[in-house]
Amino acid sequence: MTNSNGSLERPIRMVAFIDYEHTSGGGYQQAKNAALLLKSLPPELCAVEFVTTRRSTIDDLRRSGIEPIFFPVPRLRGLAARLGSIYSRGGPRAFLRKPGKMASVDRLLSVMRADIAYFTTPSNLALAIDRFNYLFTVWDLSHRDDVEFPEVRIKHEFERREFLYGSALKKACGIFVDSQAGREKVVRRYGVDSERVHLMPFSPARATVLSEEAYVEHFVDVKTKYKIPRDLKYVYYPAQFWSHKNHVFLLKGLHALESRYGIHVGAVFTGSDFGNMRYVRSVAADLGLGERVFFLGFVPDGDVPYLYRESIALVMPTYFGPTNLPPLEAFSLGVPVLYPDLEALREQVGDAGLLVDLARPDSMAEALFSLIDQPALRQLMIERGTRRLASNDDAARLSTLARVLERYRTRAVCWGEEVWMN
Fold it and tell me: Which keywords belong to this entry (predicted)?
């Protein structure tokens, strides 16, 4: 049914997929942010149902107000890499399904009477869709930007990502990226029409957006809970233990701070081990920092704001970008940020972060010393962070989403539902 404007009278029926484990750190948090944003769309425009492929996320999503359907997809992670390996031998269609048989993702969307799917993560599931339209998310193209790192090379990870982006992006009705730099790379590297790539900047994890009243009400004494000495000043880094997260730079920066200025500062790391924690621990021991570096692993979301607030600063010397969640979380909690002086990343923080040279750990020592020695500088950086965060609110994100969906709704009047069943 259509109205006089030639668009559907009824709301678009969207199925949004959340395809990351809840222990995946910033990736999962951003997917959840995207899902929560969808709930704010006008109901006359879009009716959304949520699907998670990870059983471990169900309780957390429910606590956040998202009621998901569980859709198990065993062994899906290797799908794109295997498809890539056979692509030159006839293409993926026969691999995905038998001729005339609807693939399982299409069947799910058919049962749910979906008009369109939305992948809130860079999901391999998009490769299994044949009969439905979809929106896709790209967070980074770091496998091309920083090809040296093992996590984008081993176990065919480079090939998996290349096949995923090379195949899924061209069929997407809309692609969401988090920065202008990311948009330009998607268009240039994968030959996607620029008008289909939409800017959707990251927002802080909801657990870190607290009023002062909520902060006091739910207070967690993290130093006692995690046995951190009461008098220890520390920097905080929430990041999974991948090599590109560059924990080693942070440790060398603390060593330089002690050597040059005689100031002893510790570090608190949170995040799961993806193969590099043992090496980072060994570097901490070699530098004589073992007693003041704390490896807390994956911690509850509710503890994170208090770990931030107890710190001198967020130090995030990652190589991958162009954007990351922790700077936004630090801005929201009034914590100064040290961030890489890399072309692809500095755009995110602007003048609200102290930029460090990843080739010079002493640049981190200099920035930290300035924060400790100059209270006025610390306050200035906090104020700039607050302004930076306020300049990009959910209203702009919702406007982008609504514009994409209105365009789709206007076009969807051209076919009936049964066309997808043929």
Answer: Transferase
